[in-house]
Batch of 4 targets.
Target 1
Amino acid sequence: HHKTAKESKLIMASNWTSVTVGGEECKDENEETRSTSSSPAADATTTREEENSAARPDSKGHEGKSAAELLIEDIPWIVRYRQVIVAYAPLGVISFGGPQANVAILRDHIVIRRKWLDDESFMELFAIGQGLPGPTSTQLVVSTALARAGPLGGITAFLLFDIPGMVVLIICGVLISTFVDPNNPPWYLVGLPPAAISLVFQSFYDFAKGLDKLGIVLCFISTLISILVNGDENISPDVTQFVYPLLLVVGGIVSYIDSRRKNPYGTYKSPSPGWDAESDLTMKRIGIPLWMGGLLFIVWAGVLTATVTIVGRAKAEGVTVNVYLEIFEVMFRIGSLIFGGGQVVLPMLQDEVVPNWMAKDSFLQGLGLTQSMPGPLFNFSSYLGAVYQGVAGGLVAWVGIMGPGVILIFAMVPFWCRLRRVRWFKSSLNGVNASAIGLVGAACIILYEGAVNTTADAMVFVFAGTLAMVYDLAAPLVVLAGGVFGAISHQDALGLGQVEWCAPDGGDF
């Protein structure tokens, strides 16, 4: 078909604001001007050309439908699925720098370049990921792909984003556990832990500087309680594991109560507009009905309850638990309790695996390696499992910690268009996120103690932190530079700063 001027105008309008509400087409007041003017950036976008071509109305009963509805119907799913593969395939090898950098890279790919979502929708999906347990950057990858090409698109994007880093870390975990003495690490690894810890400090600063007054208080309380619980030998790890999620729940409740006050201490965003035709069209692409979303919530809760009950009962009765079931239970439980992703997961992982699975030095070396890999920090689990039980252990650990976040984002996205207009949901997220940031602050203190043992370690920490925070160097380069600095300072090289940084048992002054 050849496009007439009228058809071209209709198609261009669909790229902006054309939706159908109650059988009438609603348009932006400036749509006429926009639809008759061309944008070089839009013309250069292959995705838009495909969509415009696919959206051409024909004579087979399409006259009564809006341009947006034609866009959804006339672009074959296989075309959108191929677009997802092309868009997300590079992310698994270029997404360095932690959760914040990953979100920025994804926004550039999805919102700016391809215009699959607008900024508001993108940030809403990001907020939902922040409010769910699991790795936020991975959940954002899944949800944005899900909104483009349905469930298979979401699963494909997840695998493309996470698998490259996971494979490398499993290999590293197997090799380190086989060839490296954790109590006497080689010269080329001594600089990795302090360099990695400097990046945790940077993440805490970046998170905390955006908090409002109430958020700072919640963050401070969360940090203090986490440090207290972690440092008290009289508190069992079985109790500690419930303190972290309790802090997040309390933070959400406090934030919600504050939002109801006439003059709240916190800053709260208004909910998005309610249900409209655009939301209906998005739901069609997602392809998951609400009842299926509810069923996925039940599946997640069932797996969590079953594994925790079986392992807990076996330990209470003194029965030996299958090692892979133990790994899966630990990781699935942590993945179900950690909100905000990223460094928030570190204190819980350390409590569970050190010293039960490995020495602290091995843990910190793996953290440094993970910081230098693309993909989410939750891939650290594959390294931990591989150190403990080889390749199979790494795979089980990775599936265990990723499972809750992926299941829950698939369950939540169908409810997204409705939750956008729920005020209590958005206000509660403020407190949950602030308390989660407090956990990152606690991780800074707890991990610093184990990573910085000598003056040389302290120098690496300051050097790497300066590169990251002052010169904005990418995380892999920061870890690499810290590793080189540590290797040069090693006692087998120049022997610089080989004095204990903190005097044992308090020391004498």
Target 2
Amino acid sequence: MSETLLVIISILLFLMLLLIVFFIITFFIKKRTHHSILKLHPYLGRMRYLLEKIGPEFRQYWFDHDTDGKPFSRYDFQSVMFLAKYRSEILGFGSKRDFEASGYYIANTLFPILTEELSVNLTQEREGKKYVIHKEGLFSRREKLTADTTNLWLYEEDDAIIVGENRKYPWKLHGMFGASATSYGAIGENYILASGFGAKMAGGSWINTGEGGVIPEHLHTGANIVAQIGPGLFGYRDEDGNFSMGKFMEKAKESNIRAFELKFGQGAKIRGGHLEGQKVNEKIASVRNVRKGETINSPNRFSFLKNAADTL
């Protein structure tokens, strides 16, 4: 009987201790916050912020429809991912998309084009790797990375796009896709190396430097490069921020810089590009010809171009 009583007393003391700790924590949480929700509901309020943080992941896997999402739906993303990772081009019969909706321009035909009739160069191959699925269960997927060879999809010689046809060194473009503009500073060296080596492996492809300038890693990949010149003239400016023909000619002499692109506007960034000073290290400052540790604001247009006539 005494042992039973001792156990009951121990449990009660433990519960009382938990209650005391709970009230102490609640007191300090309420006292130290100025947020009304957290002050009135210290625990549920924090649960709300937790749910807000994990909300995008839940919507991505559970609630979003396969064809929802901008700019790419889950269906688009998975199609590209499976093709790259598993080399799988097989799609299930039927579709979840509404092909009769406005915007679709592909329609069934009684006499479709045969594969061998496509105007595409499939003669070149690249060695790579792919994943082979051995077993796919409810909670796991057993897969193995194996060697693989794939054909490059390139334009035929007559269909190749020529950039600077009348220039001394025209660029004949056989690839269909390249890496779009992303500035060094917004992304790091590893991304540039990965996309650059990938573009070179793809054949006929290219990478765009973005307005952050050309760094050694761009050139090291050996990929074709489109060097972008933005309103901030980063990498092409003198000490006063004006356009430097000398800096431009230095880049033009690089053999794998095949073209220059002028970035006339900033897209959705109404007031222009922005890079916090704490991110502007010595390398970024050197490449962009700005001061280390100083916040960079790129204008939303070139200051010396006020209309279409000025661009000519």
Target 3
Amino acid sequence: MAAAASEQSGTANGISAAAAAVAASAAAADGEDDFVRFRRMSTLSGFMQHATDHGWGPIITAVMRLAAEPNTAALVADLQRLAALNPRFASAPLRHPTTRHCHWRPIPDFDVERDVLRFHALPGADPAAERALFLERSLDQGFDGARAQWEVTLLSYGAAPAVFDLVVRMNHCLGDGTTLFAQVMAVARPVGGGAAAGGAAPRPSRSPPSRRGGVAGLVQLVWGWVASAVMVACGVAKVLTIISRPGDPKCCLTVSAAQVQERKTVATAVVSLESLRRCRGKECTINDVIMACAAGALRRYLLRRGDPLMARKWRAPVLSTILLFGAPRQLAAGQALSANSFASVFVPLDLRNLPQSWFIGVLSYAMRKGTFYVSNLQGPQGRISIADVEIAHMFNFVNPSLAFVLSVMSYGGSATIAVAANTAAMPDPEAFVQDFMAEMNALEAAAGAKEKVT
């Protein structure tokens, strides 16, 4: 059983008809050479955007429980500072009409309050359950390809006026979770005021470079080719690494590419950092404890499901025909108008060479190399605030492409274990979280017993 380590990131159709129209107008107005001015996506980011095109949304989500209601103006100001850190935050993905490569096109008149910030009111009878349902429904919601690839939603609860949650969702094509988290932390501030909590310093967004003439233009063009070649080589190296890995044993947690779009759900649990520290030995790290608990929880879960790594064959039904129904134009003699009569016509369809079929095939091959992802993000050392409001608690998770993603984030003296699962493989992530906690409690008890002996 392999766990793929992750760095940890509208509509579900990715680059939509609106984005296609933008691409067509850009090509018509400026010509295809205009794409030289746009920053090209890396191969991996392009693959993430391609995945979004086909209905799989690799979305990174961070959830922050706020101590009070934030001021809208202050929140907009902080989000504007965040957008200034990275030009991609104010850009939309755009495909080259010929090469089909993804580029970043700056969004005209980008406005954070209009394009990014959302407000959503929930009843508030059970804030925890209502938030969980909101997060579950947002797991597979992608972004309109003609708009910014991130979204911030402020959740309020009618029956609980003192409870507010800030949900930040970002498309993985913007970057890995570690980078994005550092940028979010760069706009946060320590409780009580002071400089930003951490991360890169804001830098002004730059307009795309203009094309030069003469030798300088030739050097600029060649440099662009070299940079593209390096990006492609890095992407190929990552793909070859996946190909060279042996396949993971099949079990009840194995997800096929056809099941990627099944319903997703999230389960969480909070543990104290002190408990995690008590579990580790002298030569161990927190990551060692997390992986040990994950391995033990996985064993417990598979044994309870009655499938401890038993090999199973899986065959995907391939659609080869489509059944069309239509009413006949003329009724047979003696038939009334209310008669139940229809004609059936079988039309053969060749789906082998469709782009989505190819993408699903590649995704299915890659998914056989692992079963789940594990991500561990170290949060800020002290408590922080955003929009002048303290963040009481926060955690993160990622839309799972495999069976599930186990995400761990530390903040304020505790760590949150979040499991985002594909219900086709793991219909009960709460059970896995409970198994994880049971393993951690067992490790903590064993560590305590060892201390008494020594």
Target 4
Amino acid sequence: MDNVHYLREDEGPLTRLPPHDIDAEMRILGLSMYDPAEHARAAALMDPGDFYRAAHETLWRALSRLHAEGTPTDPIALNHELTRSGDIKRVGGAPYLHTVYSQAAVVGQAEYYAAIIHEHAEIRSEIALGTRLMQNGHSPDHDRELAGKLITSFVEKRTAATLDVAHPWAPLDLTDVVAGKQLNAAPEFLQRDDGESLLYAGKIHSVSGESESGKTWLLLLACAQLIGAGGVVLYLDFEDSAEGIVGRLMALGIPADLILQGLRYCRPDIPIDDAARSVIGAVIERDRPGLCVVDGVTEAMNLHGLDPLDNKGAAQFYEAVPRFVARKGPAVAMIDHVVKDAEKRGRYAMGAQHKLAGIDGAAYLVEPIKPFGYGAHGISRVRVAKDRPGRVREHAVGAVIGDLQMFSSEDRSVRVELRSPRPYDGPPGSAGGTHRPTALMEKVSRIVEETPGLSKASLEALTGGKREAVRAAMELLVREGFVVVEKGERNALVHRSARPYREAPDAS
């Protein structure tokens, strides 16, 4: 009868049952039989001796052997192994193996059940220590030295076990870092036309911009590049729809079969919880996506009941979603909005400052220069707002990392390119270089904002300074879409501000 507890050899008639959880033990064994990855995750958190039932420890050790050999671990294979070792009757026979196997629930939960089993084992070891100390204390031959040794041994084992676990507060092993094996790796995803990449594996990134700035197209370019190469993308969409994202990928020329093979699209409408983490963790474990896009940060935070303007809320969201995914290996890229007022925008997305502080990869701002739509050619400038690992800025000109060029054909197909920025060659007759007259560019921009319709000569006169330098600044402002030249009265060419230019965001 399942509800009858038979006394173990070390139990007396008045012994209280030690803490244990048979259901958790069966669940972890079922998960281990189902998936080698689950076995590995559990093995990192518990020891075989942590099982309360000796039969379960025997099963676990047999599973460990089979997993190490790369052989099947289903009930039939496990029955064969236990019969060979002479342990099949000891564990309850072949029917019990099928009972345990049926306990495998959603994959990705191994750590949860392993923690329960290990915690109960720790408590039992504490009870055992207390029992031995009590027995020694009541003994006529009480041995104080033995009591000290028992306590010392217990503390040393517990401390060593704690340090063996990869706890966030445990000191890191710096061997590989010192040997140069774990220096900041180069970015791997979202390639420019010259082959340089912008997104780091296992890091969190943000791509921010106004509506219709091209920020989604920029990351869909990264998705298309990876899927087209046979890779996998995880897309967590809080803003668009499956039709919208798939439609854009198909417009970029990705065949339907590759989209089905390489896109894992999710449209959550409830906050992330343990069940969701299990599902997403299983997808990452099984499909190994190189990139995860989180589309719509503001919408996602609102869904989780978090305030986008609050630093604490931003930190909670980063930990709940993007960092959870990044820890498992993929590069995470979040799509976010910026405030419309360029003067108040700063270097990061709309909302709390932690949105930038929490980025451990790179943050990018996408600024529209020429609007894009079907049948039109659009241009946006991509700037680096933050590059924590430091392997992106070296390929930027000032803060500009590239120009996003978007071309649409009559058949509604789309071609998107991220072109490397062109260095500024200096005014005519100069030796050239990469210097940008950013202070002068801001001065010219402010004059045009305050006094629209100025001719070239009037603008030069109001700006002052060397004519060649002023003309170079004007040329850059026009080329980059900050100032527009149009026909005025009597067909004279005049200057009008398209959007303000400020020096600070352009600083390297």
